[in-house]
Every structure is written in C-alpha cells, then in structure tokens.
Design goal:
single chain, alpha/beta, seven-stranded mixed beta sheet, 15 helices, 14 strands, about 15% strand
C-alpha cells in the first residue's frame, strides 16, 4: 500500500508518529533504541562506542552478569539446548520450569506460581482470563499500560480511580453491584513516579467490599522489603494480595512474567489463560537464570541494603539540588523537566557528558510533566551517584529547570 496516496486513519496515525520521530532525529533529540554494545556490570554501558554511567537500568540489584546466574543459564543450554518442543501444555514443559515456579512460590510465600513468556503478556492474559462482561475491574490511574490493556481486553466494566487515592477507590467499589465479581489492580511501585501503593488501605478495602486484589510487583521485587521479597514484606502484611504478579526481566535478569497465589488460582490459569496455553515455553537458559537470580537475592542480602542506601542518596541529593522528584521513595527517581522538549534537551546534555538517562514524555506521562526517569542500582558507588547528580544539576541550570 502506498502511504502517500491513501488518506485514512491508519495512514494518518503512521505518518504522524513517523513525522514526530523524524523531527526529533533531525534536531538531535532522539534517544530511544540506542545500540548498547556492552553491559559493564550494572552501573555502566557502552553506547555508540562510549562508556556511560547507567542511570536508566531496571537491574535494581545489579544482577546482570552475575557469575552464578550466567553459569546456571549456560548449564541449562548444555543440558536442554536453546529451546523446547513448543507450548508447555503439550510438549514444552521441562523439570526446570517446575523448579522455577516452585522457587517463585516460595520466594513470594504463595502456594504455587505459573510463568509466562513476558511481563506484559502476563497482565494482559491474567486480567482478561479472570474477569469478563458482567464483572468489574478497577485500576489505579497510573497503572502500567499492560494492566490497562488487560482491563480493556477483558470486556469487564472498567473503572479507574485517582492515583493512590483510597477514598476514590472506595467510591468505585461502591458503584459495583453487590453480587458482581470485582477485581482491583494496582502497581506496587509505579514505574514513572517511583511511589508505593498504599497496600494496607487497598487491602482493607478489598476485604470490606469482597473484591479480589491483584498487585503488579514488576518494580518492587528486590526493591521493597528487608529481603527484597516485595510489598507484602515491606508493609509486614503477609498474604493480603490474592494475585501476585511480577516480571523476570527487571531485578531478575532474564525474561518473562509470573503469577503467584493460591493453588486453585494457578491451576485455573494453566488451563484457561490463552497466553499460557498457546505460547511457547520459556527457553531453558532464561528459566535457569531466573531461578538462580531469586536464590542470589536471598543469599546476598547486602544488595537490597545497598540499593536502599543508594536510592536514599539519589533522592536526597536531587531534592537538595532543587529538583522536583514527585513522591518517589524507591530506586525510580523522576526528575521533572516540564515540557517534552526540555526533557529531550536535558537528556542530550547528560548523555554528552557520559551519564545515560532517558526522557519520558507525553502521552506516557501527562503534558507538562515530562521528565528524566532516572534509576539507581545496587551496582552504583556513592561517587558515581554524586557525579551523575552533578551532571543533572548542570543540565537543569543550563536549561532553566532549576535556578
């Protein structure tokens, strides 16, 4: 199809996005999909031939390249090869997959777990499997796109509540007929703001209104809790979450997603969720790497402690430099820039000085709240964090973000 001669909505959407990307590239302000040729531990990367301090990583505990995890992945390839014979339900389930799921269940203090091939697919599949047309699904307004898409795909009546506002959540719960099925879904740590959901209140409301509670722990496993087990440990509220979702591609340096919970729930998902039934099994090396990573977190508790110290240094230091970091209290630290163009320019300034940060702009965040979505990990040393903050401060002064 010739896009130059067709005037329909699909064509207009394609052209509008391509024009936006082209304009950013022409202005030297396009920073996405950059070629990373080497990962030097968790704190540095080689990008376009230049080594930079990495402050956009999801590897919160610095586990990328951990020798024990790498060895587990290599051993799995030596034993099983690079893949399986297909979907797990029929021909692709290995003993290794079962071992990974048992490890996750134990880590999350759950009866059982099931693994999917991506975190995004996990949310999409599970929400749309659990609720349907006559049901209600209630979502925090700042939830991840995968949660939103799962809610929409389910066909359930989709209600949203003001971010982390428990009074607003209660109003939504009151709107649901008393005999309806209700599912409340929230991120544990919000991926763009770095703040934490009010688990004590959201759990209490779900009990009061007889609603299921699902929490996405993509950014809280390894981050929250004394041993990194997540938000239930953080608030000392074991077992209050019905559906514990997490990813295997952030703190855990692999790929995939999981659900942990009651045995009956997991058995249902294995036989009803289409993403499990019709997707190929997780490759052996990735399953082995994920299993080893959970074990390393428990065996090396200093990583969680160091991450907490580094996050406190980063947040305190940026606030002292007069930046707006919103309500973050985790390793995700938004540096609010205002207009999209300012966030792009801040990124260029920092990357030219070997500090790898990335801009997040509308529509991913509200207009006027474009930001550097900076992160810190357990792999960073205090002097590296100080240098990065100095570079960000210089950028902020140069571009008028701070005075």
């Amino acid at each position: 199809m010739d896009l130059n001669n067709v005037n329909d909505n699909i064509t207009r959407r394609i052209q509008a996005m391509n024009e936006r990307v082209a304009a950013a590239r022409q202005a030297g302000l396009y920073f996405y999909n950059q070629p990373v040729s080497e990962l030097h531990g968790g704190a540095h990367v080689l990008v376009n031939g230049r080594e930079m301090g990495m402050f956009a990583s999801y590897s919160y505990l610095g586990l990328i390249g951990h020798p024990r995890i790498n060895a587990a992945a290599k051993a799995a390839i030596d034993r099983y090869g690079s893949g399986t014979h297909g979907v797990r339900t029929l021909a692709g389930s290995l003993a290794l997959h079962k071992e990974l799921e048992e490890t996750i269940a134990a880590f999350k203090s759950a009866e059982a777990s099931v693994v999917y091939t991506s975190g995004y697919v996990t949310n999409l599949a599970v929400i749309s499997t659990l609720v349907g047309r006559e049901d209600y699904v209630i979502s925090d307004k700042l939830n991840h796109a995968s949660i939103v898409d799962g809610c929409l795909m389910s066909g359930a009546k989709f209600l949203r509540f003001k971010h982390n506002d428990m009074a607003a959540l209660e109003e939504r719960l009151k709107q649901c007929p008393p005999d309806s099925a209700r599912l409340v879904v929230a991120d544990a740590v919000f991926s763009m703001d770095g703040d934490v959901i009010d688990l004590p209140k959201i759990a209490a409301l779900c009990r009061q209104y007889n609603a299921w509670l699902m929490v996405d722990e993509a950014h809280s496993v390894g981050v929250l809790g004394k041993t990194g087990r997540g938000i239930e440990e953080h608030f000392n509220l074991p077992g209050v979450i019905d559906i514990k979702m997490g990813t295997l591609s952030k703190t855990i340096p692999s790929v995939g997603g999981y659900i942990a919970g009651r045995r009956e729930l997991i058995e249902y998902l294995r036989h009803a969720s289409r993403a499990y039934i019709f997707s190929a099994a997780l490759p052996p090396a990735q399953a082995a790497a994920a299993k080893a990573a959970f074990e390393v977190i428990l065996d090396e508790p200093w990583r969680v402690e160091k991450l907490n110290v580094n996050a406190a240094q980063f947040i305190k230091g940026l606030k002292a430099r007069r930046f707006d970091t919103l309500a973050t209290e985790t390793a995700i630290v938004p540096v609010v820039c205002g207009a999209d163009e300012v966030a792009y320019s801040m990124t260029r300034y920092c990357q030219l000085r070997d500090t790898f940060v990335l801009p997040v702009v509308s529509p991913a965040v509200p207009v006027g709240l474009a930001r550097l979505r900076a992160t810190v990990t357990a792999a960073h040393e205090p002097d590296e964090i100080e240098r990065a903050m100095d570079v960000i401060e210089q950028a902020g002064l140069e571009l008028g973000v701070i005075q």
